[in-house]
């Protein structure tokens, strides 16, 4: 079954072609860039363009902040809390890296 707006869509494309809107596009006549994950290429591009990062990267940034806090704190109770958080983050990062592969 066709999309209910297929006729309108096709007309818009024909109008754009007649107006030359597809002439001289960047990359015209060149092969498409190689994609490691073609099924998710669009999603991956959108995430990248919006500043998204894999989970292990964001977790690693959080880990760096905790390590900085660990260096700066003198409170023994907080030191123990930070060490526990670091241990948990290390495990989460390892899992996220394995999932990303």
Task: Please explain how this structure is put together.
It is a single chain. Helices cover 64% and strands 0% of the residues. The chain has 101 residues and is an all-alpha fold. Helix 3 runs antiparallel to helix 4 (76-100). The mean pLDDT is 89.
According to DSSP, the number of beta strands is: 0
- Residue-averaged pLDDT: 89
**Which regions are unreliable across 5 or more consecutive residues at pLDDT < 50?**
none
- Overall, the morphology is elongated
Estimate the strand proportion.
under 5%
Count of individual helical segments:
4
Q: Kindly, what is the distance between the CA atoms of the first and last residues, rounded to a whole number of angstroms?
A: 38 Å
Q: Please describe the biggest sheet, giving its number of strands, its sense, and whether it closes into a barrel.
A: none
> What series of H and E elements makes up the topology?
HHHH
- Determine the fraction of residues in helical runs and give it as a percent range: 55-70%
Class by helix and strand content?
mainly alpha
């Amino acid at each position: 079954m066709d999309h209910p707006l297929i006729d309108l869509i096709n007309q818009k494309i024909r109008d754009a072609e007649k107006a030359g809107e597809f002439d001289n596009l960047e990359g015209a006549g060149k092969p498409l860039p190689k994609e490691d994950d073609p099924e998710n290429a669009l999603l991956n591009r959108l995430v990248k363009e919006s500043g998204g990062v894999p989970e292990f990267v964001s977790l690693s940034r959080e880990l760096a902040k905790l390590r900085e806090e660990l260096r700066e704190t003198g409170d023994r109770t907080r030191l123990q809390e930070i060490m526990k958080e670091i241990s948990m983050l290390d495990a989460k990062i390892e899992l996220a890296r394995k999932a990303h592969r």
